[in-house]
Amino acid sequence: METSRLQKYANALLTTGVNLQKNQTLVINVDVENQNFALVVTQEAYKLGAKEVVVNWRSTTIGKERLLHAADEVLSNPAPWIPEYYKTYVEAGAAFLSLISANPKALAGVPSERIASQSRHLNKALHFYHEAIMDSTLTWCVASVATLRWAELLGFTGTDEEKIDALWAEIFTLCRIENVSPTEKLAPHLQRLESRTKAMNQHHFQTLHYTCSNGTDLTIDLPKNHVWQGGAEASKSGIIFDANIPTEEVFTAPQYDGVNGIVYSTKPLIYQGNEINDFYFTFENGKIINFDAKVGKEHLKHLIETDEGSAYLGEIALVDHYSPISQSNRIYFETLFDENASCHLAVGAAYPTCLANSDGLSKEELKQEGLNHSLTHVDFMIGHEDMNIEGVTTAGETVTIMSKGKLLI
């Protein structure tokens, strides 16, 4: 892949994504196999005036060996330097860029209870970091890197280099960086998402009702002071950033105890290096009271048993079935892309920014206002070409939000 095209993409992640400021520290979370692109991002960050670029390297293969063989007490007791590391950069006001690639079988063969144990205890140790992300104290962005493994998973052909280049080209297009018309570029697209969020907020919805030919029949109440968001957002310090590239969604938080009915997944969920597929949840007064999955049921069980809040919803997101990612007709096996091809929900924590005047409220006060709290936040896809969504406003008016997969607002 030409360096100039990688530089253009990296620049978008740094300016539109995390919106890196001069003399600000950038933390990059990235797999060791993607060191070449990490170098491009680092170089572009320094061109923009970064104070320092810190790279937090990951190795899935080494991480898998740890999960398979390390002593139980190691998994349940994260090293004290890990929270200290994150604390250093959270307090410094760093921008956080996470670079990911699809690897749906990364932890295949690892006992699900060991994965769950490590995740639960690490989330507890890093709760302050996750809260800083969720309430937009920090500027952050999640984006993707093309790899040979991912390219082959998606069926690209040719030499290894040709496969990777083809995937890069598709990423650039779906992220609206290149090969799209001027009106479909990233900046005007974010403006359209902003317009949609304004329209959703003007309706003052009280309840949403999802129905679909696959059996989904779900009613979701919304908190009285909920706020719809989409595209770019402002950090607590007023910096405008885009947390996901690509992004196609507008989202808000549900009333945590106001979800009733059944919902079926429509795309695979890759959770902690394992696939969960063909699953459903039944809700009563907000809580999951029944579930099943044809693939990965044990991993789904551990997810919703992470803590009390992981059996409730924390996010509802609307995505047009006819978005470019959806119309690619691919399953990307990476939530960043699959969630932007599909309406989705998330079990676990709600974003405090989805509640008006939430700044400074405690967890208990946020819950009193209707927002869920949890150590986890995991999106799963429910969008479908036959999905219909109707909203009932506080004035009692019924509004069709989605018809046959098409967003009408």
Notable features of this structure?
20 strands, nine-stranded antiparallel beta sheet, five-stranded antiparallel beta sheet, 409 residues, Thermophilic metalloprotease-like
Structure in words:
This protein is globular. It has helices at residues 3-17, 35-47, 60-69, 72-75, 81-91, 112-125, 127-134, 148-153, 160-174, 186-203, 297-304, 324-327, 335-338, 363-368; strands spanning 25-31, 52-58, 95-100, 140-144, 205-211, 217-221, 229-230, 233-234, 240-241, 250-252, 259-264, 269-271, 274-284, 287-295, 313-318, 344-348, 377-381, 388-393, 398-403, 406-407. The strands form 4 sheets. Strands 5, 6, 11, 12, 13, 14, 18, 19 and 20 form a 9-stranded antiparallel β-sheet that branches. A 5-stranded antiparallel β-sheet has the order 7-10-15-16-17, with helices on one face. Strands 2-1-3-4 form a 4-stranded parallel β-sheet, covered by helices on one side. Helix 1 (3-17) packs across helix 2 (35-47). The chain folds into 2 domains: 3-174, Thermophilic metalloprotease-like, CATH 3.40.1830; 199-231 and 243-407, no CATH class. The mean pLDDT is 95. It is of the alpha+beta class and 409 residues long. One of its GO terms (molecular function) is aminopeptidase activity. Keywords: Aminopeptidase, Hydrolase, Metal-binding, Metalloprotease, Protease. Belongs to the peptidase M29 family. Pfam families: Peptidase_M29 (PF02073). Its EC number is 3.4.11.-.
